[in-house]
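2024-03-11 09:14:02 INFO worker-7 job=invfold-0412 stage=load source=structure_tokens
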């Protein structure tokens, strides 16, 4: 069982790039500072539905009225470099949802990632400076706060009760603030969809409600006017239509509470860096193992280091469950809490062994 360099490194890296483009965790409408100007933003349309007939006053109309005012635009102002290494101000526009009347907003991590300045555009036309409270790359969630009170809020539902086929209403800002507060309608296509993105495994709601660039961080709403998810991703491929994904709101609530309390999410870790054959190939190596994940680096002060693990060990199981990919290992460890003990089955020199490891909190530099 060994790991060796491959000559065709460039091909492996290119293949990884193609796969990464298939599932897009991004929905930020990007442009230069001249595009998507915050000052050009207009108040989202609000409609008095009191005079509508019963036939026209559908659950979609009522849901849009209930949640729409709490959906905001989020402008990420960052600085990039042009071909001549000159600084160029850029703007990306996404969406967010106000969940507390004192100014707390949930959005996607990728919407605010790298921001030098955050501007929040309210549905009433006002634009306010936002403060980043905390972010979590693993779940692609972030919390932003504005200094304002008595704001409209969206009610959170229970994503554990969502069923396939029920209506799903997406509210956000496709293509930027010019289309702020747009509403698209579909159904819940599937539950617990597992996507592996950058070796992270997340479970999402799948919907065919249109989720376009700029919708990221917006609300996925049920027919009762409750937010059941935060829109985060879509499948981007010429042959695919209507495959969007949303972070279940029960997951969102757990994460945002911890972000508000700590500014980050405390996650357990083993203190090892691992390869499976696929991830090894991305970096130009050929890994000759049939099962498990190969430890190519470990911290001697980390949990596995303290338990006596070595570089070259192959992790096969965690508490009796097979681990055959980097995403498998991360998902399994993420299901535990800091301080939990797990039994790790591993292979060393063709000999199977078992060792108990106490999970510790992941250091900030490793998050």
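2024-03-11 09:14:09 INFO worker-7 stage=emit residues=367
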């Amino acid at each position: 069982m060994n790991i060796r360099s491959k000559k065709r490194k460039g091909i492996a890296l290119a293949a990884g790039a193609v796969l990464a483009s298939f599932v897009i965790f991004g929905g930020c409408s990007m442009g230069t500072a001249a595009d998507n100007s915050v000052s050009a933003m207009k108040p989202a349309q609000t409609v008095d539905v009191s005079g509508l007939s019963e036939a026209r006053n559908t659950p979609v109309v009522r849901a849009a009225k209930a949640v729409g005012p709490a959906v905001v635009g989020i402008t990420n102002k960052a600085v990039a470099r042009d071909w001549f290494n000159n600084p160029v101000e850029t703007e990306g526009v996404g969406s967010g949802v106000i969940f507390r009347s004192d100014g707390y907003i949930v959005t996607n991590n990728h919407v605010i990632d790298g921001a030098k300045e955050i501007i929040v555009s309210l549905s009433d036309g006002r634009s306010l400076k936002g403060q980043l409270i905390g972010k979590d790359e693993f779940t692609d969630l972030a919390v932003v706060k504005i200094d304002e009170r008595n704001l409209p809020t969206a009610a959170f539902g229970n994503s554990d009760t969502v069923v396939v086929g029920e209506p799903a209403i997406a509210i956000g800002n496709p293509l930027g603030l010019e289309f702020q507060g747009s509403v698209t309608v579909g159904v819940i296509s599937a539950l617990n969809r597992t996507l592996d993105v950058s070796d992270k495994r997340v479970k999402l709601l799948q919907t065919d409600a249109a989720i376009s660039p700029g919708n990221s961080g917006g609300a996925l709403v049920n027919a009762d006017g409750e937010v059941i998810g935060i829109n985060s991703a879509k499948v981007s491929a010429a042959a695919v239509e209507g495959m969007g994904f949303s972070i279940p709101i029960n997951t969102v609530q757990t994460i945002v509470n911890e972000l508000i309390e700590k500014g980050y999410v405390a996650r357990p870790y083993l203190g090892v860096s691992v390869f499976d054959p696929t991830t090894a190939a991305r970096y130009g190596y050929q890994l000759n193992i049939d099962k498990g994940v190969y430890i190519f680096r470990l911290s001697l002060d980390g949990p596995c280091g303290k338990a006596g693990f070595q570089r070259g060990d192959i992790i096969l199981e965690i508490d009796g469950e097979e681990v055959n990919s980097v995403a498998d290992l991360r998902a399994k460890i993420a299901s535990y809490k800091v301080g939990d003990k797990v039994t790790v089955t591993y292979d060393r020199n063709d000999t199977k062994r078992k060792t108990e490891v106490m999970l510790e909190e992941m250091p900030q530099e490793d998050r």
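2024-03-11 09:14:09 INFO worker-7 stage=report msg="Residues 133 and 143 are 5 Å apart (CA to CA)."
2024-03-11 09:14:10 INFO worker-7 job finished
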